[in-house]
Each structure stands twice: as C-alpha cells, then as structure tokens.
C-alpha cells in the first residue's frame, strides 16, 4: 500500500488571516511550531512493523503477498502514525480478524541504507488473536495476499527470505525470554558482557506467603485482586507477587503482604517452606514459585480475601500453589497468628 505521510507541518491548523485594513503583526513562531517544521523536513528511516501471530497449537502465521516472490509475516510499512497504530491498521486491512491485541515488542532490526537504498527500522511485535483460530477464519485482502497459513515455526521460517528469516528467528527466541532483541541487518547487535548477561533468557520467579489463623485456615485472595496472574484461570491465589530484578523472593513476598494487607497487619516473612517449578500456561515461561511462612503480631482483618481450610483452599488455587501447600511442613497450621500466642517450636 502507498504510504500517505502527514507531517506535523501539513496537519497543523492554518494561521488566522488579519482583518481587512488591519496592520500586519509579526508573530514569533512558538517552540512547537519550530519543532514541527524541523521534523517535517528532517530525513528519517522508513519503518516497517511485522506480527508474530500463533494459533492455539503454537504454529506461526505467514502470508503470501501478491507483490513478492517469498512468503512474509503479516504487517507492512508505517505511515505518519505510531508503530502499534500502523501494525493494527495493516492487520485489519490484510486479515480482518474479529479482534486482535498487540503485545510485546520482540525485536528491532536496523537495516542499513545500502540494502534497500534507504535506512529501514523493522519492528516485530507479538500479536494475539482470539483462540481457536485458523487461516480460514481470516478474510484476506486479495489485492495484497494470495494465501495465509499457520505452520510449525521451522516450516514457516523456511518459507521466509533470508533477511526476514533471521529477524523472525530472533523474535521467536525473544518470545521465550524477557528482552527485546536488538539487531543490525538481522544479526545480533554487538553487546558488552554485562549487557549480554542481562539479556539471557531465564525463568520467572514468584513468591507467595502462607498466612493462617489459629484454627489453621489459610488466607487466599481473589485472582483479580492478587494480580500477577500466572495461574491459567484459577479463581484464587495465595498472597504473592512476581519477583522483580532487584528483589529477593522473601522481599517480594513481604511486598505482596504489605500491598494486600497493609502495614497495620504487622506481618513478617519467615522461613522458606517450599519451592515449585512449573510451565505457566498464561505466561509462556517457566515459573519458579517460592512459599514463605508469614507471621502477624496483631489480629488480621477478616474483610480481606477468604479464609479456607487447607483442603478447601487447594480446590481454588492454581496447581503450582496447591503443590506448594502440600509440600509445606505443617500445612494444616501454616503461618501462625502471633496475636494468639507464639508459633510452636520446631
């Protein structure tokens, strides 16, 4: 499709015309007007956006453009618009999906001017369509696309031209990590050792707290209230959070207790009770989950969450938290409420 750029200079409102016979008044340009004029005349690289779209089996969507010899990822060139806006526009024009959601930026590839006669910045985003989905559910723009297919990743990559194949393979690898790949013409950009280590893929880490009353009932939260939902649809969660890059698991558990119950609860994080690892259905990465004992010095408010017997709680928690509970020593007691007396000696 032909880009239709609209620069800030051409879209700004026209200046008002002085009344007939009124003396002309020189008006100094505003700073934003000067910036708009500068940006309008400033040379810029072309920008392209592509989408990594998978079906429920993990197959990758590729398309066959009428104007190219090779297959391609869905997407296209960006006009005078935001990157995500351009990607959404292209996908709606070419595929007409019933709905779509643009996710993470997976890769940025800087292609030098020597390749196409003009510098190009190509961005690859993860895009999610409602599942189940098949190529037959898409209404292709026939003057743009001959065909579309969901293929196993290796087969899809084999249909792409070499430069796009390198870019796409790197984007697929970034899908399984926590970083955005930075490329120079499809090759990894040079990095020092510290940056390289920071981009290594790793599992996500979570920490939860086992809070219980004197009767052994366990505090669970509604999943929406708990946040950080790596649970695959379970209705409840233990109080907890994903561990940030600057936290220990114990510090993350303490942060979660403070967020959900407040400072007034007087909760402290005690010993580590159990650790579990799982492939998270809603996160796409391995999750290492820690369960800590929690203590409170004052009676807890009963307006927060639900207090359930351990066996009842296990029915509403995600599988990895159920396994944490079953592995915790003395799970029928959990974290002791110190307002009812000190925890038993172990």
From TrEMBL:
PANTHER family noted in UniProt: GDP-MANNOSE MANNOSYL HYDROLASE, MUTT_NUDIX FAMILY PROTEIN
UniProt region (Disordered), positions on chain: 1-26, 323-346
Domain Nudix hydrolase: 46-166
Gene3D superfamilies with a match to the protein in the record: Nucleoside Triphosphate Pyrophosphohydrolase (3.90.79.10)
Name of protein: ADP-ribose pyrophosphatase YjhB, NUDIX family
Gene Ontology MF terms: hydrolase activity
Mitochondrion as UniProt keyword: no
Superkingdom, natural source: Bacteria
Known cofactor(s): Mg(2+)
Keywords: Hydrolase
């Amino acid at each position: 499709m032909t880009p239709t750029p609209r620069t800030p200079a051409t879209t700004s409102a026209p200046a008002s015309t002085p009344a007939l016979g009124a003396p002309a008044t020189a008006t100094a340009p505003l700073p934003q007007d000067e910036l708009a004029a500068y940006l309008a005349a400033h040379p810029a690289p072309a920008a392209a956006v592509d989408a990594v779209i998978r079906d429920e089996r993990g197959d990758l969507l590729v398309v066959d453009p009428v104007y190219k010899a090779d297959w391609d990822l869905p997407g296209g060139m960006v006009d005078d618009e935001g990157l995500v806006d351009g990607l959404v526009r292209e996908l709606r024009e070419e595929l007409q999906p019933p709905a779509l959601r643009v996710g993470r930026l997976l890769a940025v590839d800087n292609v030098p001017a020597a390749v196409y006669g003009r510098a190009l910045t190509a961005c690859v985003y993860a895009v999610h369509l409602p599942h189940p989905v098949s190529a037959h559910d898409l209404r292709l723009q026939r003057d743009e696309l001959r065909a579309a297919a969901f293929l196993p990743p290796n087969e899809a990559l084999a249909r792409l031209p070499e430069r796009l194949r390198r870019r796409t393979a790197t984007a697929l690898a970034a899908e399984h990590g926590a970083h955005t790949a930075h490329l120079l013409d499809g090759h990894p950009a040079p990095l020092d050792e510290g940056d390289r280590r920071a981009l290594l893929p790793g599992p996500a880490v979570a920490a939860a707290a086992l809070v219980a009353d004197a009767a052994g009932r366990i505090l669970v939260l509604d999943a929406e209230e708990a946040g950080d939902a790596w649970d695959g649809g379970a209705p409840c969660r233990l109080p907890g959070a994903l561990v940030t890059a600057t936290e220990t698991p114990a510090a993350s558990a303490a942060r979660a207790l403070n967020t959900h119950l407040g400072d007034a609860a007087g909760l402290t994080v005690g010993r580590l009770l159990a650790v579990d690892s799982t492939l998270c259905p809603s996160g796409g990465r391995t999750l290492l989950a820690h369960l800590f004992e929690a203590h409170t010095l004052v009676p807890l408010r009963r307006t927060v969450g639900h207090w359930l017997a351990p066996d009842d709680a296990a029915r509403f928690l995600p599988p990895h938290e159920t396994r944490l509970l079953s592995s915790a020593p003395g799970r029928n007691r959990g974290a002791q409420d110190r307002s009812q007396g000190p925890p038993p000696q172990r």
